[in-house]
Amino acid sequence: MSKTLAILGAGHLGQQIAHYAIHDNHYQKVVFFDDFSNESSINGFFVLGNLDDVEKEFKNESFDELIIGIGYKHLEVRKQLFERFIDCIPFGKIIHSTSWIDQTAKVGLGSVIYPMCTIDANSIVSENTILNISCAVAHDTFIGKHCFLSPRVALAGFIIIEELCILGINSTVIDNLTIISKTQIGGGAVVIKNISKSGLYVGNPHKFIR
């Protein structure tokens, strides 16, 4: 059965997701919706309109499933769009074929798992979350909705990452910790204690910046 994916946002992240959707054989067609593009097509994929056109085009059977391709600088927008469409349009998900997901792990709708990721037993990646290349999620770890994990993030076991968090490239979180929502962890940071105050944390060990 031929399936068409609609991606909200035709920027670099949306284009990456489109690439994996097609070349890793998750979908047969991709279309974009974007409020800021005047192009009729991008990389060979049609732009069907802006965000206000999404529901109309779904009713016209222009696509089957939806994924949000808006990046880490706009997590609140990702959340708003997910909540806007989740009750009226099916969300898809992409788990790249080179990633290993334990059979007891769960990945929520709207999420994208990039190549070479590992998600171990009993872990949960919640809805509308992105794991970039080579992330490692150990057993019994929970990642909340609308999060963005940069390449090579390493999460030990029994971690809770609440929603709307950004973890920078090569950051590490040791086991049995909780990171509160709306927290950003800088690249290469090592988190060694619970984070209960939202903000930006960098360094090894991590320190609050602002």
Describe, in short, the structure shown.
With 210 residues, this protein is α/β, with parallel strands linked by helices.
What can you see in these coordinates?
The structure is a single chain. This protein is α/β, with parallel strands linked by helices and 210 residues long. It has two domains: 82 residues, Rossmann fold (3-Layer(aba) Sandwich), CATH 3.40.50; 104 residues, UDP N-Acetylglucosamine Acyltransferase, domain 1 (3 Solenoid). 14% of the residues lie in helices and 29% in strands. It has an eight-stranded mixed beta sheet, with helices on one face. The longest helix is centred in the N-terminal third of the chain and has 12 residues. The termini are far apart. 39% of the residues are buried. The mean pLDDT is 97.
What gap, in angstroms, lies between the N and C termini? 50 Å
Oligomer: single chain
Shape: globular
Share of β-strand residues: 25-35%
Which bin fits the share of residues in helices?
10-25%
* Spatial strand arrangement across the major sheet: 6-9-12-15-18-21-23-24
The structural class is: alpha/beta
Q: Please count the beta strands (DSSP E, at least 2 residues each).
A: 24
CATH architecture of the largest domain: 3 Solenoid
So how many helices?
A: 3
Task: Name the CATH homologous superfamily of the largest domain.
Answer: Hexapeptide repeat proteins
Q: Helices and strands, in N-to-C order? A: EHEEEHEHEEEEEEEEEEEEEEEEEEE
CATH fold-level assignment of the largest domain? UDP N-Acetylglucosamine Acyltransferase, domain 1
Average of pLDDT: 97
Low-confidence stretches: none
Total number of domains: 2
C-alpha Rg (nearest Å): 17 Å
Main sheet makeup:
8 strands, mixed
Given this structure, which CATH class of the largest domain is correct?
A: Mainly Beta
